[in-house]
Amino acid sequence: MKLIFLFVLSLAFVLPIAAQNEQAPIVDKDIKYQNWKYPTVRDISKELDLRELSAGKKLVVVVYFAPWCPNWRFDAPKLEAFYKKYQAQGLEIVGVGEYDPVDSMKTNLNSLGITFPVVYESVSRAQRGATKHSEYRKGTGDKRYTGSPWYILLDPAKYSKDGDTLVKSADVINGEMIMTEGEAYIRKALGLPAEDAAKKPQPAATAAIEACDPNKPTAIKKP
């Protein structure tokens, strides 16, 4: 009986941790992704146009996120590291904030040390089902409750020359980025040789505060 009790107790800790792991592979999807012009989080009087931001870049990573979501907080510092490492080689990363007031987004970005550009599409959780983010991710098979983070990886060389639709297919990530896969993808897109992942230090995961999906238990830390 004691062994059974210990086994059940261990599951009580393991299952919540596993439930928070929403890593997903990079997959090619049919998606009519449209150009956008959104206000910036750091200065709402300014707007960024995605097509203009992409000019001269080899790869544009657009990441949609909810600031209060721990899955975003796991990915954000690693994305910032990629931005600093590869920006000069032609990488652009841009965040699209969702489902939280702009002031909360600013606080989140400052706490995470994010320097890449960030805009926002929505400012309330009540808008969750009415955003382009929601339309795109569900159209590519993302069945998560909030869909934070969600990625689309864009090759500006494949953009349509005019019109609102930039591409009709693209690589997406319906979840957290698998960082080794993500960096290999970035390096290939930038024309850089493969890097030995075993030699790179792995950043520590931050603690989860709130589950992105209210139907899932909150994890203590990422596996």
- Computed CA radius of gyration, to the nearest angstrom: 18 Å
Shape: globular
CATH level-3 fold name = Glutaredoxin
From the 3D coordinates, which CATH architecture would you assign?
3-Layer(aba) Sandwich
Strand order, largest beta sheet: 2-9-8-5-6-7
Give the SSE string.
HEEEEHEHEHEHEEEH
Structural class: alpha/beta
Q: State the helical fraction.
A: 25-40%
Unreliable sequence segments: 1-19, 204-209
Describe, in plain words, how this protein is organized in 3D.
The protein has 223 residues and is α/β, with parallel strands linked by helices. It has a single domain, classed as Glutaredoxin, CATH 3.40.30.10. 31% of the residues lie in helices and 22% in strands. It has 6 helices and 10 strands. It has helices spanning 2-19, 50-54, 70-86, 102-112, 132-139, 179-189; strands spanning 23-24, 27-34, 37-39, 47-49, 59-65, 91-97, 118-120, 150-154, 165-173, 176-177. It has a 6-stranded mixed beta sheet, with helices on both faces. It has a two-stranded parallel sheet with strand order 1-10. It has a two-stranded antiparallel ribbon with strand order 3-4. The longest helix has 18 residues, at 2-19. Mean pLDDT is 87; it is low at 1-19 and 204-209.
